[in-house]
Amino acid sequence: MFKKLMSYEDTLRIVTSLTPAEIEEKLKDARRTSAVTFFTKERLAGKVTVTQLKLWRLRPFVGNSFAPCFCGSIRVADGHTVVEGNFRMGRLIRAFMALWFGFLIVVGLAGVLTAAGGKGGLILLAFALPSVGMLAGGLVFLQAGKAIGRKDIPYIKSELGRIVEGRAESAHEV
C-alpha cells in the first residue's frame, strides 16, 4: 500500500534509431539554459548518463518535493536504442514519508496498547488520537503534492519524446 502511495504508476518506453551517446548529448543540450531563461522558462532538469536517466520538470518559482521524477535507462536492443523507465517520487521524500507514517503508526499503536493495558483513556487521547490526525494530514499533504505535479508526467513524456525522436509530438509509448 505504501509503495502505491509513493508511485505514479506510469511508465514510458521510447524506441529510437539514435545511439545512447547521441541521446545523452541531446538531453544534456536540452537541459542547458541561459541566465535569462533560467528564471522564466520551464524545462527538464536532472542527471543524464549514457545508461541512466533521472529527469524532472523544473518550473521557475514553483517548488514541489512530491513532483514525479522519471527514472529510467538507455539500452540497445535489437539494433535500436530503447529509453525505458517509470515515474516516481524522489528518494528523499519517499524516505521522509516512510519515517513519518512509520513513526505515527508506532506511536498510535503504543497509545492504544497502553490504554488497553489499564492506564486509562488519557493515554489514548494523548497518543493515539493525535497520531490518527497526523496520519490523515500526511495523506492529505501527499495527495495535494501529487495533484500539484499532475501535469508533470505529460510534460516530461512530450519533452523526452520530442528530444529523443526529434519531433514535436509524443513518442512511441507501450
List keywords for this structure.
5 helices, disordered C terminus, 174 residues, alpha+beta, elongated, 5-stranded antiparallel β-sheet
Describe this structure in words.
There is one protein chain. This protein has 174 residues and is of the alpha+beta class. The protein is 50% helix and 24% strand. It is built from five helices and five strands. Strands 1-5-4-3-2 form a five-stranded antiparallel β-sheet. Strand 2 and strand 3 form a beta hairpin. Helix 3 packs antiparallel against helix 4.
Residues in helix, %: 40-55%
Extract low-pLDDT stretches: 166-174
Give the N-terminus to C-terminus distance in angstroms. Answer: 25 Å
Report the sheet-strand fraction.
15-25%
* Number of DSSP-assigned strands: 5
Cα gyration radius (Å) = 21 Å
In which order are the strands of the major sheet placed? 1-5-4-3-2
Sum this structure up briefly.
The chain is built from 5 helices and 5 strands, in the order αβαββββααα.
Question: How is this fold's topology laid out?
Answer:
Blueprint: H1 2-5, E1 7-16, H2 20-31, E2 43-48, E3 52-58, E4 69-77, E5 80-88, H3 91-119, H4 121-148, H5 152-165
Antiparallel strand pairs: 1-5, 2-3, 3-4, 4-5
Helix pairs in contact: 3-4
